[in-house]
Design a protein that fits this description.
With about 180 residues, this protein is an alpha+beta fold. Helix content is about 30%, strand content about 35%. It is elongated, with a radius of gyration of 22 Å.
Length: about 180
């Protein structure tokens, strides 16, 4: 398989990326880039590795973009094809979501589950993210003394002791039907 590396191809290019700290999509500048082109008679591909910086908060991130000749989508009614690419940004993030501040105030167990769940939401394994959300609620219940076996009773306890609002309790109980 033939491999070729090209450095600095995208250096200075401005791209739109969800910023981990700004909490929404912002302009980022490519500080350093390396492109790897590879292939043989059967398949060809392209991998781009970039160090990027938010032009707002100046936070540094790492982005990869990969595509190959076997990954394409049909577009339009006439069967035209376009290559699809897979973009991954580290640390993972979701536009419109920023991590809670002052996590040091939260009990360590809850904080640890929260951080892993937040990363999972950004990385894309949605089943794990959903399990993480449930684990956060369960950890908060234990921390706040809601030790009943039944989930609905735990939430009711937190509402009755003013540790959770009625609206928050209703939201959790409504969505818990999907967790079974």
């Amino acid at each position: 398989m033939k491999t070729e590396f090209v450095q600095n191809l995208d250096d200075g290019k401005v791209i739109d990326v969800a910023c981990q700290f700004c909490g929404h999509e912002t302009k980022h500048i490519v500080l350093k880039s390396v492109e790897r082109k590879w292939g043989n008679d059967d398949i060809q591909g392209n991998d781009s590795y970039q160090i990027i910086q938010c032009r707002g908060c100046e936070n540094i991130s790492y982005q990869t973009e990969s595509s190959n000749s076997d990954h394409y989508n049909y577009v339009g009614d006439d069967g035209d094809m376009e290559y699809s690419s897979n973009v991954t940004i580290y640390p993972h993030r979701v536009s419109g979501r920023i991590q809670l501040e002052n996590l040091w105030r939260v009990p360590h167990t809850v904080s640890k589950i929260y951080k892993e769940t937040f990363e999972s939401i950004g990385a894309g394994p949605h089943i794990l993210a959903g399990l993480g959300l449930r684990a956060i609620v369960e950890a908060v219940c234990v921390t706040e003394g809601a030790t009943q076996w039944d989930f609905h009773k735990k939430i009711s306890y937190l509402v009755s002791t003013d540790k959770l609002t009625r609206a928050g309790g209703d939201l959790l109980l409504h969505n818990s039907r999907h967790w079974k």
